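sorry for the late reply, my laptop died twice this morning and i had to redo everyting from scratch. anyway the thing you sent over, i finally got around to it. pasting the sequence first so we're on the same page, its 277 residues, then the predicted structure underneath. double check i copied it right bc i was rushing
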Amino acid sequence: MTDAERDLVIALRNELAGIDPARPCDRIAEAAGLGMGVATREPSVARLAVRLRRVADDPTFAGFAWDTAPDHCRTAWLRGRFLARGSLSLAGGRTHLEFVVPPDEAPILAARLGDVVGPASWRIRRGRGVVTWKSAEAVGTFLRRIGAAGALLELEARQVSRALRGELNRVLNAESANLQRAVAAAGRQLDAIDVLEADGRLSEQPYAVRLVADARRETPEATLTELAEHLELHRSAVQRALERLERLAEDDPAPVAGRRSAVRSSPRPSRADGTLA
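ok and here's the structure:
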């Protein structure tokens, strides 16, 4: 990830760790999700663990039951689990969220995530359970649910900006390619017009073709549409005329009487013996 992406992930985790649940049951649920033995180098998560440590003495702490817990307690539990076992990657514009948990917990966590957001995949990797989401929509829904509203807005703004830049680059590349093709085509057409004019074949073309040839020479930078509008012709007619000029220029000129003056030699007089003089 870039430094900006890494800073955004840190800001997101700090925002989640700074949430202080008002309900005692939510505090118990979040502590259960975090796990009181969590080891972390993140100051914000370490402070959260200290804040929640006293709830470990509550008799309901060890017995947090997902199946019977209300929705707000499930949300608190998921927030704690993400801070303890979750990670978010934004590298290369791709959103990837995963939890690394004990192997037997992976299918359970995947099912719980499916209950509140949507299907998550899981597998065993090097002896540990890995639960993942690669859908930006699912990740966004999950982060919004557990309380990362501020950082998520920044993340979505960056994703929109990245998408707009990608679309703009695509359009610019397409326009550049179209421009290069148009310039190359105009060059071929001008060369063809010069060839046909030099050997006299341009003057033999229909009026519309000669009209298009003159317009092309006057405005070599014009597009087919612009030529058509200027001449008040259909675009297809202009295109066919230019293609005809290119095609004729590629062919060898056929001999036509009057196109070029033929030089004939007068016969030399013969002598009486039949030999030439």
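Residues 149-198 form the longest helix (50 residues).
thats about all i looked at so far, will dig more tmrw
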